[in-house]
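Deliverable D2.4 — example input (C-alpha cells):
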C-alpha cells in the first residue's frame, strides 16, 4: 500500500474546501502529482438529495467510492471530507455499519491529518450555500470534534486560515507518513528500472 491521503478536518465553513483546492494547486506547481477527493455529502446537497444525508452508511459508502476513484489515478490525494467525519453525523443505530465502512476504507491508505480551526474571517465569510449547518452549529461541532473521543486515534496538525500554503506543505513533508511514502515510491521506481 503506497497511497497517501491528506485529510483536512474541521467543521462546515472553516475553509476546508478552499484549503484543499489551494494545496492541490500549490503541490502541482511543485510537480507533485496529487488528486482532490470530492465531498459526497456536498454532491447530494447540490443534487437536491438532502434527505439522503440522514443515511450515514450511504454517505460514508459514497465518500469511500470518491476516495477509491481518486486513489486509482493518484498515489496522493487531498480530502476536505475525511471518511472519519461520518462518525459525527451518524445515527446511533447506524454506528456499527458506518464504523465498519470507515475501517475498511482506512485500510486503503495512510493519512496525514490537519484540523482547520475557525477564525474571525471564517465567521465573516460563512454562507449557507451548499450547507445544512448554521455558523453557530458549525462552531459547536468544531468544539465537539476537538474534545470528542471519536477522533482520539487520529493525530492532527492544527492550523487556521492564516497558515500559509507553503507552510502546510512543509508540515506535510516533515511528517513520518510523507517520508515513508516517498521512500516506498523510490523503492518502486528502483524495482521498475531493474526489471
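Example output (designed residues):
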Amino acid at each position: 500500500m503506497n497511497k497517501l491521503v491528506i485529510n483536512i478536518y474541521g467543521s462546515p465553513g472553516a475553509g476546508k474546501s478552499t484549503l484543499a483546492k489551494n494545496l492541490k494547486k500549490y503541490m502541482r506547481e511543485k510537480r507533485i502529482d496529487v488528486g482532490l477527493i470530492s465531498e459526497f455529502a456536498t454532491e447530494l446537497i447540490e443534487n437536491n438529495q438532502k434527505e439522503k444525508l440522514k443515511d450515514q452508511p450511504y454517505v460514508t459508502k459514497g465518500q469511500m467510492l470518491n476516495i477509491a476513484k481518486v486513489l486509482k489515478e493518484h498515489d496522493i490525494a487531498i480530502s476536505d471530507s475525511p471518511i472519519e467525519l461520518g462518525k459525527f453525523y451518524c445515527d446511533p443505530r447506524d454506528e456499527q455499519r458506518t464504523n465498519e465502512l470507515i475501517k475498511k476504507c482506512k485500510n486503503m491508505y495512510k493519512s496525514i491529518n490537519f484540523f482547520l480551526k475557525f477564525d474571525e474571517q471564517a465567521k465573516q465569510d460563512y454562507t449557507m450555500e451548499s450547507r445544512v449547518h448554521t455558523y453557530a452549529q458549525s462552531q459547536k461541532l468544531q468544539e465537539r470534534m476537538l474534545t470528542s473521543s471519536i477522533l482520539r486515534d487520529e493525530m492532527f496538525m492544527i492550523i487556521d486560515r492564516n497558515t500559509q500554503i507553503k507552510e502546510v506543505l512543509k508540515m506535510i513533508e516533515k511528517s513520518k507518513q510523507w517520508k515513508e511514502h516517498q521512500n516506498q515510491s523510490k523503492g518502486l521506481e528502483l524495482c521498475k528500472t531493474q526489471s
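The longest strand covers residues 110-116.
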